[in-house]
What we know:
It is built from 10 helices and 8 strands. The protein is an alpha/beta fold. The protein has one domain: Alpha/Beta hydrolase fold, catalytic domain (Rossmann fold), CATH 3.40.50.1820. Helix 3 (about 75-90) crosses helix 4 and helix 5 (about 145-155) packs antiparallel against helix 6. The longest helix is centred in the N-terminal third of the chain and has 18 residues, at about 75-90. The chain is globular and about 60 Å long. The relative contact order is 0.16.
Amino acid sequence: MSVRDRTSDHVSLPAGLERAFPAATGHLVVLVHGLFETERCWVGTEEEPGLAEALEDDPMLTPVAIRYNSGLRVSDNGARLAGLLEEIHAAWPVPVESVSLVGHSMGGLVIRSACGIAEAADQRWIDDVDDVVTLGTPHRGSPLEKAVNVAAWALAAVPDTRPLADFLNTRSVGIKDLRFGAVADDDLRRTDPDLPLRDTVGDHPLPSGIRHHFIAGVATADPTRPLGRAIGDFVVRPSSATGGRDLEPTSEVVLGGLRHLDLPHNPVVAERVMGSLTPRLLR
């Protein structure tokens, strides 16, 4: 896991922060990508600028992009992110006034994991977090991973198809964490992760004192259509991306006409995210 500058180069800590962020402000916006992605997922086009461009145009905010190995356990990446943010917080070129966290898909789970770890360890950076924004995050799991889980279990029951089941089960532990939205170290470690639809994810409430904004997308133009609710953004359903019945975000929104990979760089989503970020200076 590492910090990347606007050209995607690795930023060494702590010495490289001042060089990579010469116009650093006290209001950090940390960007955490999703599965199979890099920090480039936030970049739009000249015709349709994305969140990266919107943040760069705001003189008050400083975007800090993170790259990580999304094949690892979400909780492992959460621990690494918590430690990295503690290091960034201590070495930032100017005094830190606020921290906002934005995660796409798996990145939202990594952020939730990091916040829980930071609270338990009484890390300094968590005290400065104002807003957490998640985009298409499977807080209650992804139907795609659930389908693969069931398919692999069924294929394993027949000798002729068991090799295919073995192949499917070699997918990374990070992907398996998406089945029910695992964020803690012992989620899914109390059982065989390849058992069919065995939900062992514990209760992980959102950290208090932080505003949480959950944004979901659906493929249909009208987000209220039953078909859109059923297929979601083709990877995550809105019922999961908006937190389900147990999580209570500060705000939630479902946007139509969006696929899963559209979310981090879509200009409409970028506008929603920017409207959710409220540095303490503006309160």
